[in-house]
């Protein structure tokens, strides 16, 4: 199947045609395309790459499966996602990561890369079989105990050392659990007024600082998950400027769309759809995160797409599970917080949503330029569309979107994975 997509604007720049050959690569020209598609002046970007997705399979299929999460990813413009290991059983062994990887291939809507657990059962006590997961068919190159922080500094040190020898990265959920016992919302005036136990910024910042030091000492690669405070940005800036040079270590960080847009006042309605880990922070933090993403201090956007079944959210705030859907709204939230504000142009969006995450994860065939010879992984976006979010209409089984009823800018129209349409006119597949 060869495809000619007429009149698209790569990175929002001058209109051109994109030609895709039957090996799923972009080519300079096609003589007799099987299919000609009118690109309608849509913006073309390299397919988005999400370093932080919860697909919930195995064990949480009441909220999401590899199939439904892959559909949400394709509709959100993603061509690769990293599936977090807090499944049941945990993704801490070759057999479980291979299962998730195979399911991803069978579904075929997005490249599913399982993230391996750092410790057995996310228990924080014994290192998991990192080398075996790396050597498995899934080829794991990112390890994390996401949901739980690797609190023990000796375990974290060993994990970073192993990761270095595997050319892998350790993605840390930065939360000192001793400081967040019973925590429900950002520690500050809003939580105090609402009577919710506070989650202090220092619980994150102290771990970011400690881990940067451990990474520097090990000459290893650390990735900070869902960075959420201005203080963490300052620590990261300091580490880059002062601590890391000459060590061979690299520290990268992601920010979620919800931490760019929403603030801790969202909890005022006591609706647990706004409960998330780390919690929504005050406006000063969201503004600092936007600036840090624009400046490159925070490297990339990752969704932390975290579907939860109705009973896990339709309850009192303290009993509710933390987490929110993100795959189908991420690009629109980035458009609203970063493009509409003038902080990033669409080239910048390609960088933080595709190129940089692909590089952090070491994916050779994602986040590539829209140029002849490159794999045809791309998303076509209507920047002028506006749409109203309805959780029930999203592809996920769960419907816990914090943007319910909100009108957002920019729509993903088509997504292509290696020359095959995975989303077409906002619908899954061809
Ligand atoms: N972000 C969340 O609030 N929840 C995540 C776990 C996590 O990312 O820490 C989940 O698995 O539900
Ligand atoms: Zn986490
Ligand atoms: Zn997560």
UniProtKB/TrEMBL annotation:
Q: Does the keyword Zinc apply?
A: yes
Q: Which reaction does it catalyse?
A: (S)-dihydroorotate + H2O = N-carbamoyl-L-aspartate + H(+)
Q: Which residues bind Zn(2+) 1?
A: 52, 54, 146, 304
Q: What is its EC number?
A: 3.5.2.3
Q: Provide the residue positions that the database annotates as binding substrate.
A: 54-56, 86, 277, 308, 322-323
Q: How is the cofactor bound?
A: Binds 2 Zn(2+) ions per subunit.
The entry's Zn(2+) 2-binding residues are: 146, 173, 226
- Pathway the protein takes part in: Pyrimidine metabolism; UMP biosynthesis via de novo pathway; (S)-dihydroorotate from bicarbonate: step 3/3
Does the record carry Hydrolase as a key word?
yes
> What is the main EC category here?
hydrolase
Short name of one Pfam family: DHOase
Kindly list the GO molecular function terms attached to this UniProt entry: dihydroorotase activity
Q: Cite the InterPro entries for this sequence.
A: DHOase, DHOase/Allantoinase_Hydrolase, DHOase_cat, Dihydroorotase_CS, Metal-dep_hydrolase_composite, Metal_Hydrolase
Residue ranges constituting the Dihydroorotase catalytic domain according to the UniProt record:
43-229
Q: Which PANTHER family match?
A: ALLANTOINASE
The protein's role, per its UniProt record: Catalyzes the reversible cyclization of carbamoyl aspartate to dihydroorotate.
What name goes with this protein? Dihydroorotase
List the lineage, top down.
Bacteria, Bacillati, Actinomycetota, Actinomycetes, Pseudonocardiales
